[in-house]
Amino acid sequence: MSQLLILAVEESENPLVPPIPELVIGLIAFVIVFGFLAKKLLPNINKVLEERREAIEGGIEKAEAAQTEAQSVLEQYKAQLAEARHEAARLRQEAQEQGATLIAEMRAEGQRQREEIVAAGHSQIEADRKAAASALRQDVGKLATVLAGKLVGESLEDHARQSRVIDRFLDELEEKAEASR
């Protein structure tokens, strides 16, 4: 006991070392508080941590699902874009073919119109030539009649005779022209 007194005396002198009964009471209180916290608070903390972990894992899963969905949407977009490009190329090709066909049709139509115009021009020239020949025949006939009348010394105004003489003279000229060709 004397050692206990010495220890007690030494303990009272050292303020950092608590008395043993206080140490025992503090240890018991600590175990009670620790047990209470472990029984009541620790499950709640574990529950919150578990919920947080699940939320994080769920967020990761959602992010992966969103990424997968985004990838599939991207693939669909790329497929649609490729299809649209193919369709545009097809439409461009069809337009070129239609343009070439239209150009060919327009050329054929222009050729046909040109031929019609040329044919109409030839017909007009032929009609004008015939009209000019007829007018020339009449003028030559009148001049020949007048000249023949001056040479003969009498008037050759008889119309029937005049026509026969003119026609015979012009027919002879045409025969000579055809023979010389």
Q: How would you summarize this macromolecular structure in one to three sentences?
A:
The chain is built from three helices and no strands.
Order of helices and strands: HHH
Strand content: under 5%
Per DSSP E runs of 2 or more residues, the count of β-strands stands at: 0
Low-confidence stretches: none
Name the helicity range: over 70%
Overall mean pLDDT stands at 83
Rg to the nearest angstrom?
65 Å
Q: What is the overall number of helices?
A: 3
What characterizes the major β-sheet? none
Shape: rod-shaped
**What distance separates the N and C termini?**
173 Å
Structural class based on helices, strands and sheet pairing: mainly alpha
